[in-house]
Amino acid sequence: MGITGSRENKDKKPVVLIVGGGYGGVQCAKALDKTGHFFVVLIDRKSYFFHNIGALRASVEPDYAHQILIPYDRLLTHGCVVQAEVEVISPDGVKVNGRDEPIQFDYLVIATGSSYAFPGKVAETEQSQALAHYDNLRQKIEQAKRILIIGGGPVGIELAGEIATDFPHKDITLVHSGVALLDSGAFKQEFYTRLQADLGRLGVKIVFNDRVDLGTTTYANQHEKFIEGDHTFLTTKGKIEIKTDLTFVCTGAHLNNKSLKAGPLVAELDPNKEGRLNVNEYLQVKGYKNIFAIGDISSKEEKLAFLADKQADYVASFITRIEHKKDFPEEYHPAKHPAMLVTVGRNGGVGQLPTKGGIVVGESIHLYFVF
């Protein structure tokens, strides 16, 4: 267990414990820390923040990973970051590996997020390990001639775009089980059409409404979902034969709720919402006035970085108000309109803005949402 920042709450300020150092957790920690009224404790298993937007560029661009793996050591002024594996989250405290007693709190913000196999996300706890992992992957991509990507969600699309942009002569095939990229029907047709066109211009071959039979092929590492070596795979419906020497399986994101299942808050996990925590109109976990949930783990609205930030700011403001005995704020208002931004290589991308009617934009969005 490692600790960076102030180890002692000398002024006996109210303790806000935040579990999870993704977009929502970090934004909430920064907002509360800035007030100077709280002792903020952020717990995460990693020593760094993973800037996930545009992160797949690190798979092809040397040194890009340094820009997206940001150490937590300067995050807080009035508090600390605890690097530890969370074992149990309960209303009475948070139990972490390496510490006998649970960490106590006055307020708890649960922002445990979700996990995805590398290179969609990174599991390594130390920055140096993650950097070495990216270097290794980049070499594998450079050496490969035929690349298969299974899954046409944001990760599959962005990975295909990055590889095709930097290595235009590679044979890249993307197989997606749906009839359109992403989740068909959630966005305007123009959004899907432009995404497909962007990949097409880069030479990516797309197979829709089909799956790949991997047979008994296994992954070398549970945190990685890519397969090395020469293989010939067959799609299950069209019986299309695909030869590949590097295969990425870009499916299977899952919520980080294991530590919730190990405690009494398991009762508030909603099986109809993939095991997310049920929250009320103030983002409080139902039945608890001082426990909040934001981001992917919350049952409220879509799971996007900018919405996690919005929820974080709301909760930080709410905690500040109730600590100072002020009236409750207005209830949290979820976004009314769907939105998504997907980069397609360093020179392209498509987005649908969260406006009435859903304005679709493209071409230059990569300039605004990646380093």
UniProtKB/TrEMBL annotation:
Cofactor(s) this protein requires: 6-hydroxy-FAD
Claim: Oxidoreductase is one of the keywords in the record: yes
Entry GO MF terms: electron-transferring-flavoprotein dehydrogenase activity; flavin adenine dinucleotide binding
Organism, as annotated: Adineta steineri
Domain (FAD/NAD(P)-binding): residue spans on this chain: 16-310
Record bears the keyword Transit peptide: yes
Protein name per the record: Ferroptosis suppressor protein 1
GO cellular component: cytoplasm
Catalytic activity: menadione + NADH + H(+) = menadiol + NAD(+); phylloquinone + NADH + H(+) = phylloquinol + NAD(+); ubiquinone-10 + NADH + H(+) = ubiquinol-10 + NAD(+); menaquinone-4 + NADH + H(+) = menaquinol-4 + NAD(+)
Entry-linked PANTHER family: APOPTOSIS-INDUCING FACTOR 1, FERROPTOSIS SUPPRESSOR PROTEIN 1
One Pfam family named in its UniProt record: Pyr_redox_2
Similarity comment: Belongs to the FAD-dependent oxidoreductase family.
Entry-linked CDD domains: GATase1
Keywords: FAD, Flavoprotein, Oxidoreductase, Transit peptide
